Amino acid sequence: MLVINDESFAKRAEIIREKGTNRSAFFRGEVDKYGWVDIGSSFLPSDIIAAFLFAQLENLDDIQAKRKQIWDYYYDNFKDLADAGYFQFAEIPEYATNNAHMFYILCRNLEERNKLISYLKENTIYAVFHYLSLNKSEYFRNQSDGREMPHSDKFTDTLLRLPMYYEVSKDDLDYVISHVRKFYLATD
Q1: Are 16 and 4 in contact (CB under 8 A)?
Q2: Fewest Cβ atoms closer than 10 Å to its Cβ: which of 5, 40, 112, 174?
Q3: pLDDT for position 43
Q4: Do residues 127 and 116 touch, judged by C-beta distance below 8 A?
Q5: Which residues of the chain have pLDDT under 50?
Q6: What is the CB neighbour count within 10 angstroms for residue 10?
Q7: Which domains, and CATH codes, for the chain?
Q8: How far is CA 133 from CA 55, 143, 151, 158, in A?
Q9: Angle CA(159)–CA(160)–CA(163) in degrees, nearest 5?
Q10: What's the predicted TM-score (pTM) here?
C-alpha cells in the first residue's frame, strides 16, 4: 500500500508501480500504446502474500492487542531489572503510544550485549540487534564531513531485540525472561 499526501506525486508513483511504464494510462484510454517512461520495478505482492496481508488486516485489532500483551508481559517481568540499572527500556513520551512493534532492551555496553546474545543463543533463544549507525554506513561516509553520531552509535552498540511475534506462547516468554534474568542476576 502506498499513501500519497501530495497529488503532484500520484502520476509518477503510478508509473513507478507499473514497472516504469504508462500502462495504467493506456488502460484508461489516455495513450494509444504504453511504453517505458521512467524508472520502476515490480512492487506488487503475489496473490498469496496479498491474501496473508488481507487476513492480517481483517484481524488487525486482535493482532495489535496480542502484541501489546506480549510487550507488556516483557515490561512487567523486567521492570525491576531496569529499575536496578541492569539495562534500559525504550522511552515512550507521554504524548506517544506504543504500537508493540518490537520489544528491546538497551544493555549497558557492547561487550555486555554480545555476551547476552551468546548466552541466549546457547539456550536456543534468538535475540538480535539490527541497527547500524547511519554515520558508519558506506553511503553516509561518502556524503558527510566525518561527523560522529554518539546517540546513534549507542543504540547500535547496546540495543537488543527479544523474540516477539504473534504466535509466541507464554511458556516461550517465560523461558526468555528467566534466561535474561539469570544472565543479569548471576553476573551481579
Answers
A1: no
A2: 5
A3: 73
A4: yes
A5: none
A6: 11
A7: 7-44 (no CATH), 59-186 (3.90.1150.10)
A8: 35, 14, 9, 12
A9: 150
A10: 0.74
